[in-house]
Write a structure and sequence with these properties.
Blueprint (H helix, E strand, L loop, with lengths): L1 H10 L12 E8 L5 H16 L4 E7 L8 E8 L2 H8 L2 H9 L9 E6 L18 H26 L5 H27 L1 H4 L7
Antiparallel strand pairs: 1-3, 1-4, 2-3
């Protein structure tokens, strides 16, 4: 398939985005009724298990509310490509789970779809505007990843000198992904929010 797409590109034949395996993310916000947080947690665990059984599911991150007066959950759901995400979002089983949450939440879900690096540039409690320019996302991602890779490499060389390249690369990748997802990118996005989203203000 990839070879055919490369040939089509060389020959000038259009290639639909849906035919390419580009990771895609759904950012879902749900405002929970006060006192129903425990039931909503059970609901999240249940629907997450079902979503994980669908083809192309890559994982889900759950950001829980920090302000009890505004119990908004942010669910970041990722699939390997748009077709598989759409299959889950439009499935009858998901519709049934959404109906079960009606009594637990205030209003319908708010959902935004992003692809590629864009899911790293969303923040809990902030609106999700149009994705920032790709060059800005690339600059911040490189700025975050480079010192992490260098630091982890030096640390592993000092602590585990005999680990070897395959094991060292795997461990570096795991640490890099975790730090980018949970530490570096959220903080960089907050710091440079006004630059990433100039029309939204610095908030």
């Amino acid at each position: 398939m990839e070879a055919e797409q490369e040939r089509d590109l060389r020959e000038g034949t259009p290639v639909l985005l849906e035919d390419r395996r580009v990771p895609v993310t759904a950012v879902i916000r749900r405002l929970v009724k006060p006192g129903r947080e425990g039931e909503f947690e059970e609901w999240v665990r249940g629907i997450s298990r079902v979503a994980a059984s669908f083809p192309g599911h890559l994982g889900i991150n759950i950001f829980r509310p920090r302000d009890p007066a505004h119990p908004e959950y942010l669910l970041i759901l990722q699939f390997d490509r748009e077709e598989n995400l759409r299959r889950w979002l439009e499935s009858d089983v998901r519709r049934d789970w959404i109906r079960r949450s009606d009594d637990l939440t205030q209003g319908p879900e708010q959902r935004t779809q992003v692809s590629g690096l864009e899911h790293w540039f969303t923040l809990p409690g902030r609106p999700v505007p149009q994705p920032p320019p790709r060059f800005k996302m690339a600059i911040l991602t490189v700025a975050a990843a480079w010192p992490i890779v260098m630091g982890v490499s030096v640390l592993l060389g000092a602590i585990l000198p005999g680990l070897g390249m395959p094991g060292g690369t795997l461990l570096t990748t795991v640490v890099l992904t975790a730090l980018l997802t949970y530490v570096a990118m959220p903080n960089l996005t907050r710091l440079f929010y006004g630059w990433l989203y100039p029309s939204s203000g610095k908030g």
